[in-house]
């Protein structure tokens, strides 16, 4: 395994994927790599990203000679990459297949099809006539909402566009789930928190569905995430909210870097695997804004992942969402992420030229330090507040 891991790292270095992150604390992502057989969308395939058609053609020829079978070839026009999905030969493990592919094509990034799960943990079955509402007050968010200055997208479960809370909102949907779209409650709730009544105004919401009924525990494969990112990039969506989390995956790493270098700002939930868990992705990538959850008393959500990569905290415990089953209290870092996305979108100085470092600094300047002094692995730089007038 040590030899395979070394070859895996060598392949990443050859593709330029290991780089110094100046805008966020660095994590040795590659040291966290594992096949993670328990969290694979497909345990028989290997996925490869290459940057050119000649590279793809040559890899297909060489891989076929070694017994790999090409399932699919997809041109990613937004990310300017080519995705190849191969069936692994019988007896070839994920790490061996990764090493195999990257030895055949130095420009390739190979990986297994990890699963990434939605990060919302249940809700109360009964909601009182006068539900507790605190999230907007915590952020100084106005009751009539704010105009959006950036195009906004979500990569999530399916969105129920017939919800009365979303009536009149222009929602452009694309299904990448590969089966029967699922997690409608979750996707609809995230959409409501972003563009529902009293939230972002004057914007079109791009909604990429990546969760299928065929996937276990409301999960999405890395392939679906990459296709969704490609669509967002091709659609020129500036700001994308991702409320899924999972293990390190080199494929997602490369796709995220492509998207952010193209100008996309990505906000992601840090994950609900508990304070002792390893960093979860995509939130732990240096180019992604990582959001944890707090309650109305500014106590951190008990299941939230911790780490030096965390950027900000936002309301995410017992947040009332009206659009789901006539109203529910939802908890999880999934719920917290869209509040930060909305703050970024509504800031009048946000522009198409912003990079993640600009956004981090701007939000940090308005954040209230709610943990140990300075940036910390529980709350990041703290709880941001709206400090501008909304149109």
Beta-strand residue fraction: 15-25%
Which regions are unreliable across 5 or more consecutive residues at pLDDT < 50? 1-23
Helix percentage range? 25-40%
Count of helical stretches: 9
Question: What's the gist of this structure?
Answer:
The protein is α/β, with parallel strands linked by helices and 391 residues long.
What do you see in this structure?
This protein is α/β, with parallel strands linked by helices and 391 residues long. 27% of the residues lie in helices and 22% in strands. It has 9 helices and 17 strands. It has helices at 2-14, 53-65, 94-104, 135-139, 184-195, 222-234, 250-261, 333-346, 356-366; strands at residues 40-50, 69-76, 81-87, 109-118, 146-147, 152-156, 171-175, 200-201, 205-209, 219-221, 239-242, 244-245, 265-269, 288-294, 312-315, 319-321, 328-330. The strands form 4 sheets. Strands 7-9-6-11-13-14-15 form a 7-stranded parallel β-sheet, with helices on both faces. Strands 1, 2, 3, 4, 10 and 12 form a 6-stranded antiparallel β-sheet that branches. It has a two-stranded parallel sheet with strand order 5-8. Residues 1-23 have low confidence and may be disordered.
């Amino acid at each position: 395994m040590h030899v395979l891991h070394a070859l895996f790292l060598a392949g990443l270095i050859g593709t330029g994927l290991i780089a110094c992150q100046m805008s966020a604390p660095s994590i040795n992502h590659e040291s966290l790599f594992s096949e993670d057989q328990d969290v694979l969308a497909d345990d028989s395939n290997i996925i490869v990203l290459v940057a050119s058609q000649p590279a793809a053609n040559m890899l297909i020829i060489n891989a076929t000679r070694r017994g790999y079978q090409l399932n699919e070839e997809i041109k990613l026009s937004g990310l300017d990459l080519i995705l190849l999905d191969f069936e692994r030969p019988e007896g070839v493990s994920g790490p061996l297949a990764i090493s195999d592919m990257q030895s055949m094509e130095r420009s390739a990034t190979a990986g297994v099809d990890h699963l990434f799960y939605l990060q919302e943990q249940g809700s109360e079955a009964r909601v009182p006539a006068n539900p507790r509402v605190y999230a907007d007050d915590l952020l100084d968010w106005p009751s009539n909402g704010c105009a959006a200055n950036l195009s906004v997208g979500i990569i999530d479960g399916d969105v129920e566009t017939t919800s009365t809370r979303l009536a009149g909102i222009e929602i452009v949907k694309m299904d990448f789930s590969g089966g029967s779209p699922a997690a409608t409650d979750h996707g609809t709730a995230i959409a409501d928190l972003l563009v529902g009544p009293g939230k972002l105004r004057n914007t079109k919401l791009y909604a990429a569905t990546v969760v299928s009924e065929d996937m276990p525990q409301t999960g999405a494969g890395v392939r679906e995430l990459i296709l969704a990112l490609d669509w967002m990039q091709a659609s020129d969506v500036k700001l994308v909210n991702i409320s899924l989390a999972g293990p390190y995956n080199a494929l997602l790493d490369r796709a995220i870097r492509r998207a952010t270098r193209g100008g996309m700002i990505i906000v992601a939930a840090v994950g609900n695997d508990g304070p002792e868990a390893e960093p979860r992705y995509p939130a732990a990538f240096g180019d992604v804004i990582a959001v944890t959850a707090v309650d109305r008393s500014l106590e951190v959500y008990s299941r939230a992942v911790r780490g030096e990569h965390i950027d900000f905290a936002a309301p995410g415990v017992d947040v009332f969402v009206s659009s789901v089953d006539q109203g529910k209290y939802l908890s999880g870092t999934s719920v917290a992420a869209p509040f930060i996305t909305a703050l970024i979108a509504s800031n009048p100085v946000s522009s198409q030229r912003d990079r993640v470092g600009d956004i981090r600094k701007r939000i940090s300047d308005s954040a209230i330090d709610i943990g140990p002094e300075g940036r910390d692995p529980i709350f990041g730089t703290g709880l941001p507040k709206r400090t501008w007038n909304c149109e």
